[in-house]
Amino acid sequence: MVFGIYCAFPNAGDGGFPMNQKGFSLIELMIVVAIVGVLAAIGIPAYQDHVIRSQVSSAVMELAAGQVGVDNNKAIRVKPLLSLGNPGHIGIGSADKKTTFCLLDIVNDVSCATNNVKKEVLICTMGGGTSTVNENVNGKKIKWLRTGPGRWQCESDVDANYLPTGCVHKDTATITNGHC
To answer: Is pTM, for the whole model, over 0.90?
Structure first.
């Protein structure tokens, strides 16, 4: 019978026992944590920008849904309203004048000095709706200004980086005080 001599350190010599390695070394864990940190530093701001853009786009579209109602009411000479149950209801908003991201308002027959034409303005105040919005857009306004039958112009004091194509950035004073 032949007896082999085994080393005190497995896998260190030709007769060592195979060692099953379990777990990770401290260096490996530190590398993984560093990689996750770098990805989070890049990904979280990009994700928040995406969330803001989607909230603003949704608010613009929620408000735009009322355009048809306003145009229809103007065609039949009924004052466009946000109140449910009234003949002039434009088809958006709940009883408390809220959508998902907007607190709604409508201004009828605004006289504009530029061409003395009376216009309607649909206004959304971000953050007044049934869902919360990002703090960067909370309290900002989005307006759809009716420039003629079937023609609307979007204006907002939301940062231009977050606005959808076709919506124009205006300063806060213009959005809050002026309707034309």
So the answer is: no
